[in-house]
Design goal:
Two copies of one chain form a homodimer. Chain A contains 21 helices and six strands. Chain A is mainly alpha-helical and about 450 residues long. Chain A has a three-stranded mixed sheet with strand order 1-2-3.
């Protein structure tokens, strides 16, 4: 129900917009679009087929262009940038925060990058170059160098006067950072603390030095984990010498968490979260065909196992009728184990110390499920083909295949992770290959041994 | 690579802890555990098998107990609560924030709930009862009623004096809310604005009245969408009469986003995100067997189609060898379409206005992929069984099945959503049923028509 309410809102906007577009009245479309936040506009653009997408993009307020570009996937961004001339792009991106700009800059044409750099003042240019010098998916790339710092040997009153002089604080500032003379990170002061203490209070009484700073080389995923484990809204980023370089805010972390989730869901189907839902057909084909071809190879391997038993099948055609059940149900059981493992690995909950307990548990679950469902499947097979031995064969093969599924479901993702491969991407392919191949082998093998003797 | 670093940290803690536990030295375990945040302790407890889990739970500082309980899944929570006596539970939960307590309270034994309510002062008890009066998964249930409000007809100076008198602000306060005499929500004031403006500035000059308040009945998913679309850190919650009831903070929203993602990943395998990785075997079997049984039924339906073609297979055993390829690859192609649709629906990007364009695109992708991979599969089949007509049959059947996969992948999740069912849960089952059944039918049907004539 809740799910339903949720899409309904976005889907309603989409429908309204689509109707207005179809009617050709662009005035209402423009008004509708410009009541939305940049993220919402990005979402709408992603959901529009090319053609309509360009029309709506042309109606977005120029001042929102930059933020909208930040909020769409790489492929849609490319299509939007293709519609803009260099001047428009420069105007759109020059006012972005440094971290957002760093995120965009590599998708821009080289000539535009030069223009953007020229349009920035020296300080911002240096900051951008610094952020870009860190690897993608690290804290350095996520941070915003725009930070308000104070010194420890002062009072609330002095800080308040400084802040009033300074005017606006950077977006999402919840703490000021206290640094040493050499700009080393000492601790942080909550804005709330400044507001709730008397003007005469010395700053060093308000310092919270418990929050460890994030290392600039920390991975984005580890940053996300720390934020959600500690309920941080922002965190300081430092280099090896503890020099304060910038800060990361929760809004960027929310984006990482969403991206991770999308990546996990889509990579299991061999897809990329940055792809456009409306990619041109040849491009979509090119992307999908690789993963399908890998699955084709494993399908041929499984068939070649069936091929070894042609003589058996020729004698008992019922085997051909029943064999997909063993393979398919094994795959289903394995999918359950794999889903648990992929989550466990993503949360760091599975490792060398508990994998044996987990494997043993999964084997027992597989044996019990095999006993239960094997009995059902075996009885149906017996009744269908009037042969109790066939029931015995399929029941045993199913139980065996459940055990194969448990073993593969636990060990494949662990092994992939150890090889620095993505368990979500390759786990399913390996699992199906195993449960198909060994499912056919155990069923047809047992049948040959028991039924043909 | 980044992924690897991430688990490594948590997995390392897990290994250290596990080694210390195995050696029986509880002192180091206690020290190690109590350097962690409650969320990290929760994560560790989730990753420990029962037995070890109870030992470590006994070593957690009593003052962290409540927060740890908030940070674990329902089933693990139940196992932890089972280890505590009522007094311990009351002591653990009585200091929690109202929204966290509301989250826990339904898992507590009735006698404990009474004790907890008795231990609270009247104001907090009323607040808890109010929060509990809203449906689960609504804004009302997520909100914390502890909010700092100010009036519009005053100055920065007066507010500062009030805040100094008041002392600490509730956690994650980034705005004060401005309310009318009747406690109606008017707007918000950033803490940053109070710090950067002169004491004499009238409050009504600083009010930001652009942020719409969240309706108390709004669904949790819609709340999460609004937070991430607008980069909010917190938002006010109001009732139908615009009376301010509380506020929701980003840390709760991050939890919702994580839960949604886990739910999507696990429900596709018929699992629940609140299950314990180390559930007792009988319980795990009970849970998994239902989903497997549903898949068993669809597998039997697919086999019954194969059963219709026993006579054909008896004459051409090669068909039994090749038929899993058509069914399996069709399933894979459909999985890709389904993954895109489930994401599109979750983001509200797919609706009546663009489903036709999408379907037409997917059909074209399916036809092209069918042409490409159908040619490969057909050629291999021809070479393997020395029959060009067999190649033609399997190539055509594969293309047909890709189209079935595209149709089902687009339409099944849409239809499920319209029926208020979860597309992530049931989509895969329906998809496999279709691609297996129609894959076998088209392959064996075409073979009967073409090869046996």
């Amino acid at each position: 129900m809740a799910e339903a309410v949720r899409h309904d809102k976005t889907a309603r906007q989409l429908r309204l917009l689509s109707d207005a577009l179809d009617s050709g009245r662009l005035g209402p479309v423009r008004r509708l679009v410009n009541t939305l936040s940049p993220a919402e506009i990005g979402n709408l653009l992603e959901s529009l087929p090319p053609g309509k997408r360009e029309v709506v993009w042309g109606l977005v307020d120029a001042e929102d262009d930059g933020e909208v570009l930040v909020h769409v996937g790489d492929e849609v961004r490319e299509s939007l940038l293709a519609d803009m001339d260099p001047d428009e792009i420069v105007a759109a991106v020059e006012d972005l925060d440094i971290d957002d700009l760093a995120d965009l800059v590599e998708d821009l044409p080289d000539t535009v990058i030069d223009e953007v750099l020229k349009s920035m003042d020296r300080e911002n240019r240096e900051r951008l170059e610094q952020v870009l010098s860190y690897d993608e998916d690290t804290a350095g790339r996520l941070m915003n160098p725009d930070v308000v710092t104070v010194r420890a040997d002062t009072t609330v009153d002095v800080v308040l006067r400084y802040l009033r002089l300074r005017g606006e604080l950077p977006e999402h500032t919840d703490h000021l950072y206290v640094v040493s003379r050499r700009h080393q990170y000492i601790g942080r002061i909550a804005l709330a603390a400044l507001l709730t203490h008397e003007p005469g209070t010395p700053i060093n009484k308000l310092i919270d030095d418990e929050q460890a700073a994030i290392d600039v080389d920390e991975s984005a995923n580890e940053v996300a984990r720390q934020f959600s484990d500690h309920d941080w809204l922002s965190a300081p980023v430092v280099d090896d010498n503890n020099i304060l370089l910038g800060r990361i805010t929760i809004d960027d972390v929310v984006d990482i968490i969403r991206d991770q989730a999308e990546h996990q869901a889509l990579s299991a189907a061999g897809l990329d979260e940055d792809d456009d839902m409306f990619s041109p057909v040849p491009r979509a084909v090119r992307r999908r065909v690789v993963w399908l071809a890998v699955n084709m190879v494993t399908a041929f391997i499984a068939s070649s196992v069936v091929g070894q038993f042609e003589a058996t099948i020729e004698k008992i055609v019922a085997l051909a009728v029943l064999m997909p059940i063993v393979a398919g149900m094994g795959g289903n059981a394995g999918t359950q184990v794999l889903a648990l493992m992929v989550r466990g690995l993503a949360l760091g909950q599975v490792g060398a110390s508990n994998v044996r307990t987990l494997l043993w548990k999964e084997i027992r679950v597989a044996l019990l499920n095999g006993l239960l469902l094997g009995t059902v499947v075996g009885s149906v097979a017996w009744a269908w083909f009037h042969d109790p031995r066939l029931g015995l064969v399929i029941g045993s093969a199913l139980t065996l295949n459940f055990c194969v599924a448990a073993l593969t479901g636990v060990l494949a993702p662990l092994t992939l992770k150890r090889m620095n491969l993505d368990p979500a991407l390759a786990g399913g392919v390996i699992l199906t290959a195993m449960t198909d191949t060994l499912g056919f082998l155990s069923f047809l093998g047992l049948a040959t041994l028991i039924l043909l003797k």
